[in-house]
Amino acid sequence: MNNTERIFAYLEELFPDAHCELEYTKDYELLIAIILSAQCTDKRVNMVTREMFKKYTTLESINVASLNDIENEIKSLGLFKNKAKSIKETVKILIEEYDGEIPEDKSLLIKLPGVGNKTANVFRAEWLKEPEIAVDTHVARVSKRLGFANEKDDVGVVEKKLRKQLKREQYIKAHHLLIHFGRYFCKAVNPNCTECQLKDICKLYNSKLTRKS
C-alpha cells in the first residue's frame, strides 16, 4: 500500500460517512449556500439558510426581494453585504439568461457573481456528481501536511497536484474526506497529532520533531 492509498484508507476509517454538510433541497439553494460559505462554517450557513429558504421558496422570490431584505437574512455571516449582492446578481442572471436553470458548464458557472473556481467545483461535484476537487483552506492545509503539495503552493496548484495523484473516480470522495479530516481532526490550531496514524508522513509533525531535537 502506497502513501496515498494508506492516507485515504485511514480517512475513510475515521469518516466513513463524509459528505457535504451544507443543507439544501434545490440546485439554486446549494449554489447560494456555497456562496455564503466563503470564510464561514457550514454550521453557521445552515442556521441562516434554514430560515432564508423558508422565506424565499423560489428563485423569483429572491429576485424580487430587495437587496436590503437579503442582507437582513444573512447579516450574521461574514462579508454579508458582498454575499447579498452576489446572490441578487446571480439570481437575476439565472432568470434572465438561463431561464432559471443553473449552467452545468464550468466556464459559464464561474462567470456568475460570487462563483469562483472552488464554488463551481463544489456545485458540480455535489449536484452534478462531476469529478471535481474543490480546494478550501482545510483541503489545502491537509494536502500540504500529508505531502500532496508544498507549503507555498496556492489553492490552484494544490488542486492540480491532487488531480494528478488521484484517480478521477476518487475526486469527490477525496474532497469530502480531506475536508472532514481538516475540519475535525487535523485542525489548523492544535491538530490531533497524538492519535493520528499518519504522523510519520506528516510534514508538520516531523518539523516539530526536528525543532525539538
Mean pLDDT figure: 95
- Unreliable spans are none
User: How does the helix and strand content classify structurally?
Assistant: mainly alpha
Residue share in β-strands: under 5%
How does this structure look, described?
- The chain is mostly helical.
- The protein has twelve helices and no strands.
- The protein has helices at 3-14, 27-36, 42-55, 59-64, 67-74, 80-98, 106-109, 117-127, 137-145, 155-165, 171-184, 203-212.
- Helix 2 (27-36) packs antiparallel against helix 6.
- It is elongated.
- 34% of the residues are buried.
- The model has no long low-confidence stretch (mean pLDDT 95).
Characteristic terms for this protein:
213 residues; mainly alpha; 12 helices
In summary, what is this structure?
This protein has helices spanning 3-14, 27-36, 42-55, 59-64, 67-74, 80-98, 106-109, 117-127, 137-145, 155-165, 171-184, 203-212.
Element layout with pairings:
Layout: H1 3-14, H2 27-36, H3 42-55, H4 59-64, H5 67-74, H6 80-98, H7 106-109, H8 117-127, H9 137-145, H10 155-165, H11 171-184, H12 203-212
Helix pairs in contact: 1-11, 2-6, 2-8, 5-6, 9-10, 9-11
